[in-house]
UniProtKB/TrEMBL annotation:
InterPro entries: RNaseH-like_sf, RNaseH_sf. It comes from the Bacteria. PANTHER family: TRANSPOSASE, TRANSPOSASE RV3428C-RELATED. It comes from Paraburkholderia steynii. Signal peptide: none annotated. GO terms for molecular function: nucleic acid binding. This is Integrase core domain-containing protein.
Length: 69
């Protein structure tokens, strides 16, 4: 996985320098990336739970249902 945030507060407070691919993707789809505080487990867990849900509760059952059909 590539680094998403190249430099924190590069352009001012809460204005980070992002990976060019992510910046283009966000601009194209009309959203602004929001980062978690470093070493702050309470905010990081909210993001990781969504990834876990997509991986284990959505994607795996979807793939298995397609294999059976």
């Amino acid at each position: 996985m590539k680094t998403v945030i190249l430099k924190r507060d590069a352009f001012g407070k809460k204005q980070h320098r992002y990976h060019p691919g992510l910046a283009d993707f966000a601009k194209h789809h009309g959203f602004v990336p929001r980062v978690c505080k470093p070493y702050h487990a309470k905010t990081k867990g909210k993001v990781e739970r969504m990834n876990g849900y997509l991986r284990y509760s959505f994607w795996v059952p979807l793939v298995n249902s397609n294999r059976q059909g």
